[in-house]
Structures are given as C-alpha cells and as structure tokens.
Amino acid sequence: MNARRLRTNAQATRLLFVSVGLPREVLEIPQPNSRASLASLFAVVIVDLIGFGIVMPILPFWADGLGASSTLYGLILSSYAAAQFVCAPLWGRLSDRVGRRRVLLITVAGTAVSLALLGIADSLWLVFVARILSGAFAGNVGVASAYISDVTPPAERTGKLALIGLCFAVGFTLGPALAALLTPLGTHAPLYFAAALAALNWIAAFVFLRDTQRTVDSGANAEALRFGALSDPRVRTLALANLAFSLAVTVLESMFPLLMMDAFGYDARQFGLLLVGVAVVMGVVQGGMRRLVPRIGEARLALSGCALLALSFAAIPSMPSVALLLIPLAGSAIGRAFAQPSMLGLVSLAATPATRGQVMGTFQSMASLARVFGPAAAGWLYARNTAFPFWLAAALVALTLFVPWRRLARELGAAKSG
C-alpha cells in the first residue's frame, strides 16, 4: 500500500514539474500499464458517448422550441459532424506531437464547456455554436484508439480496441436512458448533468491517466495534417472501407426510427427500449472479441461482419412484423460488432508510433464525413420509397466485400509479430 502511494505521489510530482515548465525529457513519464489509467481512458470515451446519447433525444425538441425547421435541424446535425470531420485528424496529429494525455484532457474540457453552452442556449445561433464546439472536441475517440495502440502488443490490439465498441454500446444505452429520467426536471437538466459528468471525468483523467511514451516527430509531414496518412495505400484502402461502412450505418441509424414509426406505430419509449436491446447485443459481442480475434483473425472477422451487415440491411424493410424484424436487426448488430473493431485493429497496425494518432484520427474522420452527408441522402430517398435507404446501405456495405482483407492482414502481419 505504501509503495503504491509513493508511486502515485511521485507521478503527481512529475506531472506538477512538467506543468510548470520542466522539460519532459528530464522527467520521463512511465508507460501507462496500470488498470486505473486504462479505466480512466475508457471512462473518457464512455462519458463523451453518454453526453452524445443524452443530447440526441433532446435536441430535436430543443431546436423546435427555438423555431427551427426540419431543414435547419438537419443542418445542426451536419454542423456537429462537419466539425468532427475537420478536427479529428488534427487532434490525432497533435497527440503525436505533444502526447495523448494532453489532447484527451483538452477535448474532455471542451466537451464539458460545449454541453454547458447548449444547456444555456436561448437562440438557434447559440445552439449552432454549441454543437460545432461539441463536434470539434469529439475527435478524441481516434486519440483514445491511438492510446490503446501505444500500450498494447500488436497481437492483442484488436481485442483491446473492441472495448471501444463496448464503450459505444454503454454510452448509447445509458445516454438516452438518463435523458428520459432527467427530462421531467426540465429540458436543461440532462444537459447540465452531462456537462457536470464531463467535468468530473476531466478530474479523474487528470489524476489517473498517464501519458504514453511519445516519439519525437521530425515534422517532415507536418504540412499534411489531415490527409497525409492517406498516402499509405493500406491506410487509404481501410479509410475508404470505413467511409462506405459508416455511410451505411449512418443511413440505418437516421432512417430506422422513421421506419419503426411509419410501419409499426412505435413511439419514443418503445424505440428506446429497442435500442437498448441492440446495444446489449453489440456489447456482448464486442466483449467477446478478444477471444475471437486470435482464433479467426481480423480479416475474416471484417469480411464476415460486412457480409452479415449487407444481408441484414437488405432484409430490414421487407419484414412484415417486429418479431421477424428482430432477426436482421440482431444480424446488423453482430455484423457491426465484428467489422468495426477489426478495421480499427488493422489500421492501427499500418501506423508507426510517430504517426499513429494522425492515422487513427484520419480513419475516424471518415465516419464523421459519412455523418455529414448520410442523413440528408437517406432522408431524400426515404421520401420516395421507405426501402430505398436500407437498400443503399446494403449496397454500400457490399462494396467493402471487395476490399482485399486477407492481403492487408498478411502485409501487416510483420507489424503484428513485432
């Protein structure tokens, strides 16, 4: 116990000295191998996603109360995604240069401020500002993925990155549930709660989160902050696959509530319970990924996950009852749980320690780009035929079946054994 306390005090002293200007080279910060540090990292991601989940059920009513049309509401959603798309690679690149911990602390603080600003917003322009700020600071999932890649052996990396997917499941389950519980206290209450939770999360991260070993970057690629990582054909292939994958998932997420309402008369409470079930399925599968990866490998998991998604998306609009609809819905949850962490694991192996944050940020920005354009295209198609968006999603995922997953895995095998 005393030894642990001494280590904690020594670490706090080192962080204090660094914060007042002593060079980092003088006081080497140890590699983050403690459970507390990793738990703090996953808490950063979960709390961000809980905040996102709290906002989403409230934001439509919030914007409507301020006089926003449906078109303007769509622009509010797109502004968040656009800011995330622009900033995610920049945060990743910055984390390569100054350290993961500093960037994570900045983004968590920014998230707390943006949620508090949304809570006090009394005009649409303030809502826009709050959502743009929130999107700009939401790029820390890529930094968190780089952090895990820094401290995890390549052979175990995909299994650990699957826990990011588990964080998504937890955040998207707890967020809407908390919003429903707190809304009777006032529409402001859930937003203030999310801001307070982010502030507490910053304190926990400051105390427990240790930095990774940072590789000094020569700055040779500093001019290519956003898309410089795409010069690597392996990263480019995986990023384009993630773009198609994320477009398909975004189409499903944006139009599925309308399908449940129009075809089966679902209300918000029923739909929320359905989402909880989907999140639980994804969480269980994500939790078992660490056992599946050594046996099956990232390439087969990605391929099988994308195939299952394509079949599930194509079947969803033709299901005549909710009971039958649960089959492709469960298939889509399992397929996503297979494919997403497998792609993350592969792209992490394509990066060097000095560029890992940039690569992961660029990869994550593909999902942000999908959320900018996906809902608008899906809404236009849904107005013409309720099945069209889901068939588009199936076609987009089917494109990823042509990705040479096994060849990529072989090319990156040397990194895995390193």
Annotation keywords:
disordered N terminus; 79% helix; 418 residues; mainly alpha
How does this model look, in words?
By secondary structure, the chain is an all-alpha fold. 79% of the residues lie in helices and 0% in strands. The protein is built from 17 helices and no strands. Helix 2 runs antiparallel to helix 8 and helix 7 packs antiparallel against helix 10. The chain is globular and about 55 Å long. The two termini are 35 Å apart. The N terminus and C terminus are likely disordered.
- Oligomer class: single chain
Number of strands: 0
Distance between the termini: 35 Å
- Number of helical stretches of at least 4 residues: 17
Shape: globular
Secondary-structure element order, as H and E? Answer: HHHHHHHHHHHHHHHHH
Strand content: under 5%
Report low-confidence residues grouped into runs of 5 or more. Answer: 1-34, 215-225, 414-418
Average pLDDT figure: 74
Judged by helices, strands and strand pairing, the structural class is: mainly alpha
Largest sheet: none
Radius of gyration: 21 Å
In percent, how helical is the residue content? over 70%
List strands and helices in order, with pairings:
Blueprint: H1 2-19, H2 35-65, H3 70-98, H4 100-120, H5 124-136, H6 140-151, H7 157-182, H8 188-208, H9 233-264, H10 268-287, H11 289-296, H12 298-315, H13 322-349, H14 356-384, H15 388-399, H16 405-411, H17 413-417
